[in-house]
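so my prof wants the structure for this chain in the tokens format not the other one, which i didnt know existed until like an hour ago. anyway here's the sequence
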Amino acid sequence: MPSSFSADITGVVAQHLINGGPLLVAIEPDSDSGSFEQLEEMLGVRLGNGVLVSDVGQVREDIGHSTPQDRQNHATGAFLTHESNPHLSTRASGTSQLLFSTSSWIQPVGSAASLFTPTVLSNDAAFGDVNNNAILDGEETEGALVLAGVSVGTAGRPFRAAILADSTMISDRWLLHPTNGLFTKDLLGWLIPQEAPDTEATSDVI
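here's what i got, hopefully its the right format
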């Protein structure tokens, strides 16, 4: 997702959802939430405040030594059961790690919040660092924050949408990680289901 959407583009995306189309939204912490408001109302989520920081589950950029950036590289094995995540959600907790880098987080909100289902959480030590000082302050949110989830429309508006709190986790670099690749493959398969072959079709051989 770009840092901002024009009203025209937001309107086109919203109409796509109204028509029942699938949507993949990958948000970054510096995204302009104002341009996302129309979609927020439909999807039932908004961007949480701050960049995700944690002293637990860090992923080092340089194996030789740690850097401040490592605290924003988050590995999590907290998967919730959902058909969009059939493989990882059935594995024992912590056996597979999904990688996020400079992630935001997702908060259900509004009258459409019931349409949203979380599928991936951070660890309990994570927090949204609003003022970029890497210290948990009183106004910042801490705990198992939502990093990914899905929204499913109603019968009259049967869209499917996947919302990720980090676009980097599906970039070329991070998709090389087996867990990120498997998660993305399953998610896209849920977003755009493949029709089953017609097993009743037969042909006569002469």
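also thought this was worth mentioning. The longest helix spans residues 178-191.
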